[in-house]
């Protein structure tokens, strides 16, 4: 059901400025942004005095596990967590079961999301040694990108054949989103760790096993190939300082053909956290040193890194309690990425305008998402209201994830999300989730 909403007296954060205004959303669309809009009949009023209105977050890197891995997560639970975290659109990865390697398998995922999702959605198609034809058949107006695993990770989707890789780079009509880690380097490091520790490898060794050299070798090869072929490359979860010199600090747009993402865990955890969190922060690529973490923040500020993704990749608590060698990589992040970023705003390390640039505007620009990612008249009513000076602690009871755990448990955040609107409907307000009919498949201007 369409719901009309008037948000009054919000501080609107958009395109580098903060302006106090009212926003009227009708039939799912932002109809007017104006400092003095009177309440039309039959319209819900949200008084936003002292609150900031941001475009809804677009998280272009999630693993919602549906279909096939729904003991870990599913589209209903994780999209609810997304809404609670101020995320209004997600792009889901192909390492589901079966892996999403054809347009037909993607259509099944669109069907699942249409039934279950609380937020807008699209999907990446996976790349295998033999599915180039399928990638060429994918609809660029509906499919977000092609995901290439240059190294092995959860789901065993690594693309190893150099010829298949080059063919993809030469002919992909879609943006190529790349997971870059060098398998041979990792195998060598793992063999050394086994010599030292046997089968009982400490979690902190993850940073040595999946080290910065493994990332650099793989990402520099991907960048070289993109430059040679002219392919549009988006490097996923950049995690180390040594990779950053390869990235330019231009604004994303037609002239910046190689763009990059950083993920929540690489910004908010570092090597020192393995002592307390152990395998809970075992993710691929690994969480690395404090220096790496600081360099990633600097690269975000300078523009070398363009987007922030959550890499929300839940596994069950039982799986994460296993010893290092048997513990899968990944963890749930989507509900706490925006609150964690707001805590950096409070500390003065990052501005609210930069949060919006990296989490809303740039994902929309890079993926060419139609009419989302900005608060503009005529755009979809995807928005999030946040309140500062409203501290809260992450507690297990408040987690919306099916897996029921978070590496952020116990952390205090100084700002909270009060309302999330998806396509003009309230999906989340004051701690409560609401059923929504508004979520839609994203469309792309290509
Ligand atoms: O840590 C990770 N988890 N990295 C990946 O590449 C995949 C992801 C997952 O799906 O669990
Ligand atoms: Zn991922």
TrEMBL record:
Keywords: Hydrolase, Metal-binding. The keyword ATP-binding does not apply. InterPro entries: Amidohydro-rel, DHOase/Allantoinase_Hydrolase, Dihydroorotase_CS, Metal-dep_hydrolase_composite, Metal_Hydrolase. Pfam families: Amidohydro_1 (PF01979). GO terms for cellular component: cytoplasm. One of its GO terms (molecular function) is metal ion binding. GO terms for biological process: purine nucleobase catabolic process. Its cofactor is Zn(2+). Catalyzes the reversible cyclization of carbamoyl aspartate to dihydroorotate. Gene3D superfamilies: Metal-dependent hydrolases (3.20.20.140), Urease, subunit C, domain 1 (2.30.40.10). SUPFAM superfamilies: Composite domain of metallo-dependent hydrolases (SSF51338), Metallo-dependent hydrolases (SSF51556). Its EC number is 3.5.2.3. Residues 52-426 form the Amidohydrolase-related domain. NCBIfam families: PRK09236.1, pyrC_multi. It comes from the Bacteria. This is Dihydroorotase. Belongs to the metallo-dependent hydrolases superfamily. DHOase family. Class I DHOase subfamily. It comes from Candidatus Merdimorpha stercoravium.
């Amino acid at each position: 059901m369409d719901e009309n909403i008037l948000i009054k007296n919000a501080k609107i954060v958009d395109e580098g400025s903060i302006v106090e205004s009212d926003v009227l959303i009708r039939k799912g669309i932002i109809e007017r942004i104006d400092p003095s809009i009177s309440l039309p009949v039959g319209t819900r009023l949200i008084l936003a005095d002292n609150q900031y209105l941001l475009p809804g977050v677009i998280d272009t890197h999630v693993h919602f596990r549906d279909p096939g891995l729904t003991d870990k997560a599913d589209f209903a639970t994780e999209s609810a967590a997304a809404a609670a975290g101020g995320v209004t659109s997600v792009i889901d990865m192909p390492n589901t079961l079966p892996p999403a390697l054809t347009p037909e398998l993607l259509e099944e995922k669109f069907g699942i999301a249409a039934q279950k999702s609380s937020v807008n959605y699209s999907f990446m198609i996976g790349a295998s040694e033999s599915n180039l034809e399928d990638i060429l058949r994918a609809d660029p107006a509906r499919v977000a990108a092609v995901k290439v695993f240059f190294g092995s990770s959860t789901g065993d989707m690594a693309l190893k054949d150099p010829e298949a890789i080059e063919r993809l780079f030469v002919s992909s009509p879609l943006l190529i989103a790349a997971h870059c880690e060098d398998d041979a380097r990792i195998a060598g490091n793992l063999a050394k760790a086994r010599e030292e520790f046997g089968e009982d490898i400490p979690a902190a060794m993850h940073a040595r096993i999946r080290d910065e050299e493994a990332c650099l070798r793989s990402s520099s090869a991907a960048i070289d190939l993109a430059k040679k072929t002219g392919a549009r490359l988006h490097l996923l979860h950049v995690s180390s300082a040594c990779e950053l010199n390869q990235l330019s600090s231009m604004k994303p747009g037609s002239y910046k053909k190689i763009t990059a993402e950083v993920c929540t865990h690489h910004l908010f955890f570092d090597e020192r956290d393995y002592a307390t969190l152990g395998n809970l922060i075992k993710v691929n690529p690994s969480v690395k040193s404090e220096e790496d973490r600081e360099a990633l923040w600097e690269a975000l500020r300078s523009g070398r890194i363009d987007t922030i993704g959550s890499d929300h990749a839940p596994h069950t608590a039982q799986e994460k309690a296993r010893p290092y060698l048997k513990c899968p990589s990944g963890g749930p992040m989507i509900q706490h990425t925006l609150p964690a970023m707001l805590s950096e705003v409070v500390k003065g390390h990052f501005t609210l305008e930069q949060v919006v640039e990296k989490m809303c505007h740039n994902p929309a620009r890079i993926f060419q998402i139609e009419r989302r990612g900005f608060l503009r008249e005529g755009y979809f009513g995807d928005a999030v209201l946040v309140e500062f000076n409203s501290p809260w602690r992450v507690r297990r009871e408040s987690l919306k994830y099916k897996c029921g755990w978070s590496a952020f448990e116990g952390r205090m955040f100084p700002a909270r999300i009060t309302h999330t609107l998806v396509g003009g409907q309230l999906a989340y307000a004051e701690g409560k989730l609401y059923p929504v009919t508004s979520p839609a498949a994203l469309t792309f201007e290509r």
